[in-house]
C-alpha cells in the first residue's frame, strides 16, 4: 500500500511531535524584553526604572527611552 493510500490515522501517527512551546512570561517580563529589543544599548536597570515610572505601560516607557536615545545624538 502506498503512503498516500494509508488510512488517515496511520499518517497522523507518523507525524513528528510538536516542539515545546516557550514558557509564558509575565506581562512585566514581556514589557522589559520588548523594550530591551528596541533599545539594546540601554542598560536593563534603566529600562526597568523607566517602565516602573511609566506604571508598567510600554508605550510611555518606549517614548521616554526614545527621547533619552535621541537626546544623546542631539547633544553630540
Give me some keywords for this one.
76 residues; 4 helices; mainly alpha
Short description:
With 76 residues, this protein is mostly helical. It is built from 4 helices and no strands.
How would you portray this structure in words?
This protein has 76 residues and is mainly α. 61% of the residues lie in helices and 0% in strands. It contains 4 helices and no strands. The chain is elongated and about 70 Å long. It starts with 7 loop residues before the first helix and ends with a helix. 8% of the residues are buried. The model has no long low-confidence stretch (mean pLDDT 83).
Alpha-carbon distance between the two ends: 74 Å
Biggest sheet overview: none
The number of strands is: 0
Q: Which outline best applies?
A: elongated
Which secondary-structure class do the elements indicate?
mainly alpha
* Overall pLDDT: 83
User: What is the radius of gyration?
Assistant: 23 Å
Number of helices: 4
Fraction in beta strands: under 5%
Write the layout of secondary structure elements.
Elements: H1 8-13, H2 27-38, H3 44-53, H4 58-75
Helix pairs in contact: 2-3, 2-4, 3-4
Amino acid at each position: 500500500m502506498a503512503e498516500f493510500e494509508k488510512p488517515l490515522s496511520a499518517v497522523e501517527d507518523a507525524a513528528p511531535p510538536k516542539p515545546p512551546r516557550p514558557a509564558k512570561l509575565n506581562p512585566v517580563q514581556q514589557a522589559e524584553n520588548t523594550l530591551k529589543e528596541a533599545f539594546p544599548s540601554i542598560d536593563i536597570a534603566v529600562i526597568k526604572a523607566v517602565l516602573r515610572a511609566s506604571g508598567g505601560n510600554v508605550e510611555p516607557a518606549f517614548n521616554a527611552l526614545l527621547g533619552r536615545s535621541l537626546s544623546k545624538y542631539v547633544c553630540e
